[in-house]
Amino acid sequence: MDKCSILHQCDSKFSFPVSETKAQLRLRAKRNDTIKHVNVLWNTGHKYYLKQFRTELFVKYSDDLFDYYVGEIDNGAPGYSYIFEIIDGDGTKYYYNESGISTVLRIEESFKDNFMVIFPNKSDIVMPNKQFEGRVFYQIFPERFARGSSKRDTSYITMDWNTDEPKNDKFAGGDLDGIREKLHYLKKLGIGAIYMTPIHQSISAHKYDIDDYLSVDKMFGDLDSLKKLVDAAHQQDIKIVMDLVFNHSSFYNPMFQDVVKHGKASKYYDWYFVDGDKPTWEKGNYKTFCDVKMMPKLNTNNPETREYLCSVGEFYLSKYNVDGFRLDVASDVSHKFWRIFKYRLQDINPDVFIIGEDWQNSESFLGNDQWDSVMNYPFLYACQRYFAENRYDAEQFSNFLNMILMRYKDGTNRMMLNLLDSHDIERFLNCVGLNKNTMLSAVACLMFYQGCPMLYYGDEIFMDGKNDPYNRKCMRWDSKEYESKEHAVIRDLLKMRQGDVLKKGDIQIYSKDGVAYIVRSYAGKKMTLAVNHGPKAAPLSGKPDYVFNCKDNLMQPDSFAIYNE
Question: What is the pTM of this model?
Fold first, then answer.
């Protein structure tokens, strides 16, 4: 047994309550080690020394380096004391607790050495948000999605709707009324939540450089347009998530312009990071987002800045009844701010859904006190490396997906916002060389993976688009793809996604004979997705209930099969 690979920690992704009495435990060990059994010896904390229950853990997830033994303990008590009994292949018993690994079991030392699941205070238990769990998200870039039928002002429109040369300083006329008029389309498609990129007053098409946080850009309508959109969406059981940009504002925001004019005498001077008396465009003597002078960085360490930005979230939550927020460049904003922000919003709506933008491991931000979810770019990385770059085979793909599952607690995994593309990156169809079969195989994985799948507007009709600005073309409402057999497959997958097995089920991922498998199970039912992206055909296993690109009982390259049990 490789002792150096053994790892467990209390009150972490390895040990956490999943209800007011039940706890999930995970033990990490070397992959394919000589371990024969892993047991947990446990009881309620103050009763442990009198009696120990024994529960065996089993390998549920594996990545390139490690196996993860997983199990749950529950005897109706609120907290537990426990150690691990690890039986090696030669029969040697090892006992693992906070003091390390030993061959001697010392029950009398339990209060000193045992691991503990502390009293599971309800506010600390990371549970899925029942209002959002398993919903399919649809990301909309409002300027390019749909133009309302009653649009009054078209004088600012400077770009043809169907151009292949979109620009961030050109405008096609999409607005909030256009989104509202397409809600019936989204509902029929199977969409349960809309995530809109920013809608605030700004000079750009993308609106990430905000001039006024408390208004809707006049190109999109006004605050009444937002209210009508939210109300109409709720009537169709579609949630609305707004994009908030608290890392930076626009150079032209009146707050920053006051600093430009008055320097240190401005009441907003400490709201930003300025080097010297006054910030100037020429000197660029102020902190920004990614060296973009148009986007001066806000100082959320300043209590007045925090108060203002919290009031912005409260404004849209209380007056316009939005359901949640996606937070731009959220990992660059302080943990302290997000804790304050989350608790302030929960006082208005306990079910508010907070999604952070962070492209790496986000464990330090996720839980009940800051974000509920994150745009899960690592899921995208796995799909890029398997389907687009051919860097991963089926085993490596499965291992990577298991690894990112083990980064977070179970409740967090169930709320992750999983994506294949977004307004920030090349469309996935372009990544796979415009191959629709490959795209559909990736979409199948997206729909089967645990969490909330997100389509970027137009993915369902195979819109293409390389990196910004080409990934921000206008929605092709006249596309012939709406009648294609490939679009029908996406509709089928979205229909399957509406069931509880894919919305709420447990997950297991593995590979066999060059085929990747994602298994979801819930309430005695099971659905299995088998995906073959290998260079060779692979035999179908059993009789599937749904197939794509499978012929003569073989899974062709870029094919998948679905089994219901």
Answer: 0.95
